[in-house]
UniProtKB/TrEMBL annotation, chain A:
Pathway: Protein modification; protein glycosylation. One of its GO terms (cellular component) is endoplasmic reticulum membrane. The keyword Transmembrane applies. Belongs to the DPM2 family. It is a multi-pass membrane protein. Regulatory subunit of the dolichol-phosphate mannose (DPM) synthase complex; essential for the ER localization. This is Dolichol phosphate-mannose biosynthesis regulatory protein. It comes from the Eukaryota. Its main location: endoplasmic reticulum. It comes from Penstemon smallii.
From TrEMBL, chain B:
The keyword Transit peptide does not apply. Keywords: Endoplasmic reticulum, Membrane, Transmembrane, Transmembrane helix. Component of the dolichol-phosphate mannose (DPM) synthase complex. This is Dolichol-phosphate mannosyltransferase subunit 3. It holds the Pfam family DPM3. GO terms for cellular component: endoplasmic reticulum membrane. Stabilizer subunit of the dolichol-phosphate mannose (DPM) synthase complex; tethers catalytic subunit to the ER. It is found in: Endoplasmic reticulum membrane. It is a multi-pass membrane protein. PANTHER family: DOLICHOL-PHOSPHATE MANNOSYLTRANSFERASE SUBUNIT 3. Belongs to the DPM3 family.
């Protein structure tokens, strides 16, 4: 069990670090690179730097609301 | 209470810096608009990283446990002094 927890922790750390590195390159460093440089092939256009996080945030909030509603419904049923 | 003041000061300083970047337009405006989003995403990444590191190391806090036990004893004494029934231990 503890090994699984450690693996999940390592996975979370790696995911967060890689997202942070990629996004930093995308948003902070790419504006200072020439637009005909080969690096630009590895990144989506600039609009997606806004769209993807917004979509991710909206989905996250939707899931959270569904989960909270589910828990509230369940706890009310237990009381009655 | 002090912590929130610190955080608010940091936020105000960051937004002032951002607005000045918007006004002076050293870098293109479309990139300046991305910076708050970048800030939010780095906050999220920091949170995720802290959860991951906490899961990996899973630290125990013996010092805080002692302090908590002391607090419990103190609170029990206080409540007994006020005549509140808190059960026996």
């Amino acid at each position: 069990m503890e090994l699984a927890d450690r693996a999940v922790g390592l996975l979370l750390s790696i995911i967060s670090l890689s997202i942070f590195t990629y996004y930093t390159f995308w948003v902070i460093i790419l504006p200072f690179v020439d637009s005909d440089n080969f690096v630009h092939k590895y990144f989506l256009p600039q609009e997606y730097a806004i769209l993807l996080p917004v979509y991710a945030g909206v989905t996250l909030i939707c899931f959270l609301s569904v989960f909270i509603g589910y828990v509230m419904l369940k706890s009310k049923k237990k009381k009655a | 209470m002090k912590h929130i003041v610190k955080i608010m000061t940091l936020l105000v300083a960051l937004s002032a810096l951002w607005i000045s970047l918007l006004q002076t337009s050293i870098i293109p405006e479309s990139y300046t608009w991305l910076l708050p989003l970048y800030f939010i995403i780095s906050l999220g990444c920091y949170g995720l990283l802290m959860v991951g590191v906490g899961l990996m190391r899973f630290p125990t806090c013996p010092h805080e446990a002692i302090l908590l036990q002391q607090d419990i004893v103190e609170a029990k004494g206080f409540l007994k002094g006020k005549g509140v029934d808190i059960g026996s231990d």
